Amino acid sequence: MPGTRARIASPGTTLSGMNDSRAPAASLSRVLLCGHYRFPLDRPLVMGVLNVTPDSFSDGGRFLDPGAALAHAQQMIADGADLIDVGGESTRPGAPSTPGAVELERVVPLIEKLASFGVPISADTRKPAVMRAAIAAGASMVNDVQAARAPGALESIAGAAQPVALCLMHMRGEPATMQQAPAYDDVVAEVKAFLAERARACEAAGVARERIVVDPGFGFGKTVAHNLALLRALPELVALGYPVLAGLSRKATIGALIGQERGRGIGDRLAGSVAAALAAVARGAAIVRVHDVRETVDALKVWRAVQDSPQ
Length: 311
Ligand code: 9MG
Known about the structure:
This protein has helices at about 65-80, 100-115, 130-135, 155-160, 185-205, 225-230, 235-240, 250-260, 270-280, 295-310; strands spanning about 5-10, 30-35, 35-40, 45-50, 85, 120-125, 140-145, 165-170, 210-215, 245, 285-290. By secondary structure, the protein is α/β, with parallel strands linked by helices. Strand 5, helix 2 (about 100-115) and strand 6 (about 120-125) form a beta-alpha-beta unit. The two termini are about 20 Å apart. 9-methylguanine binds near residues 215, 218 and 247.
């Protein structure tokens, strides 16, 4: 059940039974290696969001104080988070980019402390220098909304002394402008082709298949209709053979679907976010990235009990 801790990988652990170069393209990774943590993907994982930024769309400014950030991480872990995603740059629509030095200062000391909390820490960054520092500080995963396209990003991850997991997310454009009339001929086919290409590039650079996660990037250069099309078609992305991460928590699409025009704010998106997480898991998502860990874990427990109940 959510909250059951990942096992630590023992040296020489057999993974999918094949080495990476022989694995067929569409074989499903049933295990995720995150630093020295090993998740058998027999249940959905919950990634708790910890933004240490002044301007994130939902929790901007709340966890800039290190004490508040640590306490929130502790609470999310107690609530059943399997991983914690630490971000020092807001990637909400319209956000300007954050200087690398500022991002480093926000996340590195925090990751150093969180690394001993007993769950893998993911560094939400697209900057190679921040990736390297975060890994040295103890991060077990890099969550890159730019899918390791920045010069030096792939090398920073593939060449890390401590191998880490990598989440490759699709984003059309840049956060500052990505929601200005995004358009696709076929959003599902285009996102799928992009993720397949990025995953292949990562494997070619030396990142083990069992360390790669793909993510359609809900809300990143996408309309509500694009997001719904991707959510419905999630099994097509699952068929790529990598665990799929879905992040819909508190996003504008949830607001649009519950009727923001009636004056409802981000604080009113909890039930819609939990419903979206369940919809993603029901379509094969292996990881859901959420702000509201406790409620999502509860909902997943009920969903799993139904799934696992005898016929
Ligand atoms: C940082 N961040 C914000 N939203 C996200 C999402 O949907 N997926 C991933 N991987 N990261 C996200």
